[in-house]
Design goal:
single chain; 139 residues; mainly alpha; two-stranded antiparallel ribbon; 4 strands
Amino acid sequence: MQKENNKIMPRTLKGKDAWRFVASLENRTMDIELFKEAVIQVIKAVRNNGDEAVREYMVKYYGVDIPTDEFMVSKEEIENAFARIGDAEKKAIEKEIEIFKIFHRRQKPQEIVESGSYGRIRLKWVPLGRIGVHVPEYP
């Protein structure tokens, strides 16, 4: 990824560079225990320190310092970005959104209700109000 005006920009690989990248992914190995420990540390830091931990990791790994109050993308920013892409990209995004919705509707467990002399017990699945997603760059 390239950085431009404190924003991370995608890098396009073509020809031999793209094939070298694919080959490097196929040939790399990883110590899974070392990887798990690193991930556990990140999760603990984010649980304990929230967005500030995320900001610190972005500075550490990407050299990008984004204030935590700018983490959430506004509706206006999404609309502006959507307006700058072509029809084919818009259709692809809309198709993916629909696929995700269908998949996760099917994934959702059924509500469980048990009643008896003890009263009523209910297990209800409630969707999250919002989520954060971090997609790390490739080597």
